[in-house]
Amino acid sequence: MNQFLTSSFISTPAPPYPLRVTSRTLSSTRSNKLRVSWFVLGMAFGIGCASSFSPSINPDSWITAHEKVMPAFDNALTAAIESTSRKVASTVSESKSAMGKTLDDIVASTNNDGDEQKIADSAPAKSRPARNYPLSLDLKVQRGDTLISMLSDVGISHDEASQVADSIRPIYNPRNLTAGQNISLHLSKEPDSSGNPVIAKLSIPISNTSSVEVKQQASTDGSSYDVRKVDVPVEKKLVRTGGAIDSSLYDTGIKSGIPPALLSELINAYSYDVDFQRDIKQGDALDVLFERNQTAEGEATGYGNVLFAELNLGSARSIKIYRYADKQGNTDYYNEKGESLRKALLRTPMNGAKITSKFGMRTHPILGYTKMHRGVDFGAPIGTPIYAAGDGLVDFVGKKNGYGNYVRIKHNGQYSSGYAHISRFASGVAPGRKVKQGQIIAYVGMTGMATGPHLHYEIYANNEQINPAGVKFKTGNILQGKDLLAFRENVSSINAKLAGMQRHKTLVVADASNIK
Predict the structure, then answer these.
(1) What is the largest CA-CA distance in the chain?
(2) Residue pair 481/487 in contact by the 8 Å Cβ criterion
(3) How far is the C-alpha of 326 from the C-alpha of 332, rounded, in Å?
(4) Cα gap 500→492, rounded to integer Å
(5) Are 402 and 449 within 8 A, CB to CB?
(6) Quick check: helix, strand or coil at residue 334?
(7) Percentage helix, strand, coil, to 5, in the chain?
(8) pLDDT along the chain (516 residues), means of 10
(9) Could you give the CA distance from residue 144 to residue 161 in angstroms, rounded to a whole number?
(10) Dihedral (C-alpha) 269, 275, 277, 279: value to the nearest 10 degrees?
(11) Are strands 454-461 and 376-379 parallel, antiparallel or unpaired?
């Protein structure tokens, strides 16, 4: 039998290699047949071994049985092995044929291309845009880019890129390029001696209103560059915006698109007549007209002045103000009659403050007994700026009992103002120094007898403390004669502009001509 098995395996065609390919191409059905065949062979081998070592079997009877059974088993086993081998060989041949075809295709494709240049030529045309010169390009600065690297990337020689970078350095440092910045590049029709494209014009914006421009020009010394700073044309436009007040005047102004600096100026103008804590209620409305400088494309480059504003306090009243510069060059806000809103003293000497304690009798928060509170407390974060309530001379700066850090300003022979619980004094504020109304004199704190950061603000009339909210201060200036006539003409021009613009619509732009 050993000879038979040996000859059977020798006659079986050897499967092609690598066997890894064969095992990957066998179907599950064929794999199962192989497993059964090897299982049968193993069973037969086990039975033979068991029979040869069993002491209860007569050797003679075993030989007889072997002679009768084994020829039939050998024939069946040989047929199964040959059948399985043919199927394996067929499967491997099919897999090899498919794989060989794929590999042949790849090799043939590579041989046909020949080199990397031919492979690149087979790529879509859009990945290799053809360049016809002269050519204009818009380059956007990416993180890590330099001017030299960006120019080199579009084919400019390194020498020319370096010369251009050096030429603009007196006006603009190329190292200041930032990600997202745009560069406009125009390439000449004629390449250089090495076939590289040549810069005809280069433009880099350096601010909202200017750019640096480089042009190549011929000179007696050869090629050179004309470098200059170019100002972007700016137009002055009018913007009308506003809306209903839902929380505070400041929040409504910011949401409406009013720049913070102009909004602070507007609040200061109204602070003479308006108590922002008690007078303004939800549902009141703000309407503002201000100047905006912009490019021809509509990009804002800066802001001018607030020309008009209307604060509608519901059924109570509506306050309209107009900006005007008199013949002496003094600028102020006036009502429709030509009366300045500016008063002798401010009712609220800070922005965004909340009244935490009014003028009058109260239980002192620290001492615990009822005592006259001879001022108004405005709660605000530490460091909030405090403004001078009016023009005058600084009378006292320093510590004062329970007031902590304290400033007192003498405005005239009748009025003075005091500011307590200050965290620090503004630079230049000292006894005998002049201050202007609205000038920062100190910053909110909680020095002295204070339970939290706030400003204690008080006004003296003839050295007697009075209620700041109850004082009726006189108007600072009233226009007369030619100034009044000019002011009325300006008011008419502003009203005509307002009539042609939508009300309470953010950033509606109109021409700013005929407005002084």
Answers:
(1) 151
(2) no
(3) 8
(4) 13
(5) yes
(6) strand
(7) 35, 30, 35
(8) 44 48 44 55 61 49 48 57 57 50 42 39 41 83 91 89 90 90 86 82 87 76 76 87 87 89 87 78 91 83 91 86 88 91 80 75 68 84 91 92 93 88 94 91 91 90 83 76 93 90 65 63
(9) 17
(10) -110
(11) antiparallel
> Among 92, 84, 80, 86, which Cα is nearest to 23's?
92
- In eight-state DSSP terms, residue 311 is E
Q: Please give the helix or strand (H or E) that residue 210 lies within, else none.
A: strand 210-219
Q: Which phi and psi angles does 430 have, rounded to 5°?
A: -155, 155
Evaluate whether 294 touches 240 at the Cβ level (below 8 Å).
Answer: no
Angle at 423 between CA 418 and CA 425, to 5 degrees: 65
Contacts by 401-407, CB closer than 8 A, 24 or more apart: 401/448, 402/448, 402/449, 403/448, 403/449, 403/456, 404/445, 404/446, 404/447, 404/448, 404/449, 404/450, 405/442, 405/445, 405/447, 405/448, 406/448, 407/441, 407/442
Quote the strand ranges of 61-209, DSSP E.
135-140, 182-187, 199-205
Residue type, 310: E
Is the pTM higher than 0.70? The answer reads: no
Distance CA 344, CA 413 (A): 12
Give the residue ranges of DSSP H helices in 213-276. Answer: 249-255, 260-270
Contact 465, 419 (CB under 8 A): no
Quick check: helix, strand or coil at residue 317?
coil
- For residue 158, give both structure tokens: 């390194």
Question: Residue 485 in 3-state DSSP?
Answer: helix
The answer to whether 454 and 443 have CB atoms below 8 angstroms apart is no
- Rounded to the nearest 10 degrees, what angle do helices 59-113 and 2-11 cross at? 10
Q: What angle do CA 90, 94, 97 make, to 5 degrees?
A: 135
Q: Which of 315, 319, 258 is nearest to 283 (CA)?
A: 315
Distances from the Cα of 134 to the Cα of 103, 199, 391, angstroms: 46, 10, 65
283: left (phi over 0), alpha (psi -120 to 50) or beta: left
Contacts of 316 (CB under 8 A, 6+ apart): 279
Residue position matching structure tokens 């030509």: 338
The token pair that represents 145 in the structure block: 């880019």
Which SS3 state, helix, strand or coil, does residue 68 take?
Answer: helix
CB of 40 closer than 8 Å to CB of 77: yes
